[in-house]
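Issue 218. Parser rejects a valid record. Input:
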Amino acid sequence: MRRPSQRTWIILGLSAAVVIAAGAFVISQAPVQAPTTAAGSSPTASHSTPATGSGSKPGSTGSTDTPLAPVTPPAVTKRYTTEVLPAAPATSPALPPTTPLPYPVSAPLPKSAAAVGALAAGYPTSVLPQAPGSTIKTSSIASQSNHLQVTLTAGSTQQVTDVVAFYRGILAKYGMYDSAAPALAGSTSALFVRGGNSVTLTVTPATSGTTYALFAAFTAAG
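Output the parser choked on:
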């Protein structure tokens, strides 16, 4: 029998190498069957290594999501404020009730009258009394509807300032206060007014004191 030549052995070796390489390629392309558990089911855990920074430790087999730690709210503390609260209003003492000022005259008004050397009948002496140390010359009253006019002329032993001060005090009780009024040379006049009521006083120096004249116009209340 003829022995194979060296060339034949080389061809056979190359053929065997090709067959082995082809077999290895087929095996590498075949799907790899996952290992089964005792019950025959595939394991659910992932064998892949989690990426760095995913929140799980390398080598763990559980879920790649690590639960976050519970956030503890800050402790409640007292609140401080710089707001200045308004002070409580001080209680004011109660004022006593005020009494309304009386009117100079009220209805019914007296009838018109006049007199010489005396006060006329119905003359309002509480409103326009004669000044101290007076001697009455003439007086009169005239009434119509709710209006009353009063006149008085007299002489007094008092001085001008005394007569003015007397009537100033009398008429202030009725809320009538004076202001300067026009007068003849050498005389002093004062006008007292409240609403529809007015009194004009004119005082003139005389030898034994003064002479004065009153003219008033009143409106009856009510």
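Fixed in the parser; the record now loads. The chain is about 15% helix and 25% strand.
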